[in-house]
Amino acid sequence: MKKHNFYAGPSILPEFTKEKTAEAAMNFAGTGLSVMEVSHRSKEFVAVMDEAVALVKKLLKVPEGYSVLFLQGGASTQFLMAPYNLMDKKSAYLNTGAWSKKAIKEAKFFGEIVEVASSADTIYNYIPKGYEVPSDASYFHYTSNNTIYGTQIPTPDVDVPLVADMSSDIFSRPIDVSKYDLIYAGAQKNLGPSGATLVIVKDDALGKVDRPIPTMLDYSTHIKAGSMFNTPSTLPVFACLQTLIWLKENGGVEAMEQTNIEKAKVLYDEIDRNKLFQCTVLAEEDRSLMNVTFVMTPEFAEFEKEFLEFATAKGMLGIKGHRSVGGFRASIYNAMPVESIQALVDAMQEFEKMK
Ligand code: PMP
């Protein structure tokens, strides 16, 4: 039976990425060795890192004056590296969920944090609007896509530099990098396996804080060493490169955005139509194109477990909602084919007929 991978992360990757990585796991760049067993300083691996950096710059139209890094430690380490390197005395944060909250917690180790707005009052099912960002903040931090709650944010229009956690929607749409001092993303959604963390940092934003920064947590260290200060996660970076090649060959982030809009519409339309289900995110403009969160309508609440089993038996994997939201979450990242979304919609329609 065909498996449809709706996991939130680690999550679906292009077949191309998996095939090329599987090949390189046995014979990397004609070396006769696995990509896991050659030096990161070999000319073959240095070429992988260089091409990955160049493709990130090309796909996201990264302007001059920015560095692209592949680090380790996940997005969670960026929660502290961001304030460590960029925050003077104060910074502003938008609280749109568990990941924002974790970022805020780390930033508080470094100074005053202004939480400009929060949607915690209704389990983060909307994006707060109309907030004020203090003009003396070093930066404004937000989570562009809230993986758990199914909400997504367009680039905010504020007067201070932006810092964004784009872990779950990087490469899903074009972004104006020039508005950001820092963008970071754990690889394990739209890019590659876990173990690599993508960082795009504005060079001029660095070196402005007084506090001493430990070597490994200083972006400058990794910029100077071309992400090779210590051993990078070689196999994950190789896999990320394959996804970047796949992205380029498939029309880049502009084409991804179009397809993502069309793909998400198939599922949201069905949730809105089907009497059994309702979306947890009410305002259409807040709905994520990456993670679609929905629950049973109150009249049919008793059938939640039954639908989960029904859909799972039909090959839908990973659709159980996060425990803090309940219900279901279908993660439909770039690599998710519309056929899999249609299969979920078909299962929802079939289940409706049974009730
Ligand atoms: N931010 C967001 C938006 C996430 O979805 C996640 C979970 N993958 C994280 C941060 C934490 O990422 P990591 O596990 O790479 O530290």
What does this structure look like?
By secondary structure, the protein is an alpha/beta fold. It folds into two domains: 4-11 and 252-354, Aspartate Aminotransferase, domain 1 (Alpha-Beta Complex), CATH 3.90.1150; 15-249, Aspartate Aminotransferase, domain 2, CATH 3.40.640.10. The chain is built from nine helices and 14 strands. The protein has helices spanning 15-26, 43-59, 74-86, 98-107, 219-224, 234-249, 252-273, 304-313, 338-354; strands at residues 4-5, 66-71, 90-95, 112-118, 140-143, 145-146, 151-152, 162-165, 180-186, 197-202, 277-279, 291-296, 316-317, 328-331. A seven-stranded mixed sheet has the order 2-10-9-8-5-3-4, with helices on both faces. A three-stranded antiparallel sheet has the order 11-12-14, covered by helices on one side. It is globular, with a radius of gyration of 21 Å. The protein binds 4'-deoxy-4'-aminopyridoxal-5'-phosphate. The site of 4'-deoxy-4'-aminopyridoxal-5'-phosphate has 11 residues, from α3.
